[in-house]
Specification:
The complex is a heterotrimer of chains A (99), B (268) and C (283). Chain A is of the alpha+beta class and 99 residues long. Chain A contains 2 helices and 5 strands; from the N terminus they run ββββαβα. Chain B has one domain: 2-enoyl-CoA Hydratase, Chain A, domain 1, CATH 3.90.226.10. Classes of the chains: A alpha+beta (99), B alpha/beta (268), C alpha/beta (283). Chains B and C meet through helix 2, helix 3, helix 4, helix 5 and helix 6 of B and helix 3, helix 4, helix 5, helix 6 and helix 10 of C.
Chain lengths: 99, 268, 283
Amino acid sequence: METLSFAFPAGLPASRRAQVGCVGSGDLEVLLEPGQAGSLNIQVVTSVNGSAERWRHLFERMFAGANPPALNVDIHDFGATPGVVRLRLEQALEEVSDV
Amino acid sequence: MSNVLSQRGLNWLRALTAGAAEQSGYPASVRVVDAALGGQPARYIAVVPDAQNRFPRARSGEVGLLEGWSLGCALDEVIEADRDAPVKRAVVAVVDVPSQAYGRREEALGIHQALAGAVDGYARARLAGHPVIALLVGKAMSGAFLAHGYQANRIVALRDPGVMVHAMGKESAARVTLRTVDELEAFAAKVPPMAYDLDSYASLGLLWETLSVEAIETPQGDDLARVQACLEQAQADIRTNGTDLRGRLGAANRAASQRVRELLRAQW
Amino acid sequence: MSDLNALLHSRSFVELGARQRAAALLDQGSLRDLLDPFARVKSPWLEAQGIVAQADDGVVVAKGSIGGRPVVIAAIEGNFQGGSLGEVGGAKLAGALELAAEDNRNGIPTAAVLLLETGGVRLQEANLGLAAIAEVQAAIVEVRQYQPVIGVVAGPVGCFGGMSIAAGLCSHLLVTREARLGLNGPQVIEQEAGLDEYDSRDRPFIWSLTGGEQRAACGLVDAYLADEVSVIRECLLQTLEQPGEALPRSRQYARFLDLLARFDAAPQADAASVRALYQGDQA
């Protein structure tokens, strides 16, 4: 198990919070809460050791230069594949996005 | 398997009741004796080994189908007998139960329901105002302890390496958690709720009292007097302070149990 | 056409997570999630053992109403650690039931619904899980004096260990075909009693003894329901409306002791012999 932190530039705070997923085999739990304007902070607790680079790439592809909403993101991962991680993050982001 | 069946439950039951007659109508594995506690009527109950038990997986003192339902019966009798009594008699569960019965017959016939019968009896006795005390003289394992002892208002344990409370034996617990027994023991050494020793268990705040005795296998003399005095104090404490289970909360190693309740109440 | 319509509108209950299950059963818009994931009351024991914790410890406590009646639902998430109960999840269940009992003592007729997907005690928190389950059981018996405590075992995890005893204490117990209900998990029986006694890999054998259909045929549950949200909600509505006066199953020691006295325990038991015993009694 390891704990990782990431930060990205962001826009205005999201107006809602959201929770999706479950800490079950091959799955993860994602909690999104409005953050401080300008920053997206992500904390990952994962059962898979040595996976920091994988998480960094995934987040960079999703968030770098994309002006995401300002959020504090908590991820509790139980061995999810990058595809599942991305799906859960997109689900959660959709829940907090202003329509 | 070296399987010397424990006689502790039977020995303590007999000693505490001064050899009073057992109630008839129960299976040989469930011993029910009405005798005094501190000069007041009380019912003492033990589950003991019965090498002739009709259910082969329940011959070593396990709580099985007959035992679960019979405990329910023994408690319902007391509740009914004291229905209109202003002072409800105490119930003392003498606990030396190695496990619930693990077997095909048991699962097929619904052992979970039989053990629910026992829990129901103890819980209703408590709610009806009977002081219910558990005296741990041997193993108090898992579902067997849930059925026989864990509904008590006050739990008293004798200090002895053979007195043990746990959710599952080491080998099975290792298998289910995908660990080796060595790994399991390493975790148990630093995680108090996983440990198998009585001091770790006591640190969870679930015991009302622990007592040292000289000869746990042969209860007599000072040992017996001290245990009897403790049971009398427990009875008096319950009669003064009520029959709920709040006394179990408060230990530092069980702080989250209290905090969750406080937060739930605030949000209720 | 109506069959097709029904199929198109059917919604599986088993496939839902614990929070979705609670929301699907409560009256629309009535749900209040207590100690929700953002409260972050996680297990204080798992991370020290290298196990990732879930923000709500896998137990959802949802207050709301069903058919306008006040209800608290406690739902266990079977996908987190096999639905096992540790200190926090166990305290959420017990605490919710204790507060429901207090409501009733104060004249508020709060009923309880328990959505049980659990292997029982979480062995990483062993004795604290066991203690919490004893308290859950105590509180079920207390609430049951006033209002129904309805257990639902939908599957796929089923309900085992100390929580199967808790299921046996409920005033009403509902299952689906995907449910299993038994005290001891198959692996543990095999470990303790040997392969001849119980082969944990023989799934048809295990289902034949502990599956929802067999439990229903033996009268060890009160309803055998389709895996369909509307069907389960309708059954809850009816049960809350008309709970009936039957003696709770866990009080029927006289009947069960009589049945067991008639059962030939010498040969090994099978599904048919147990059905014959329990159905003979019902006829």
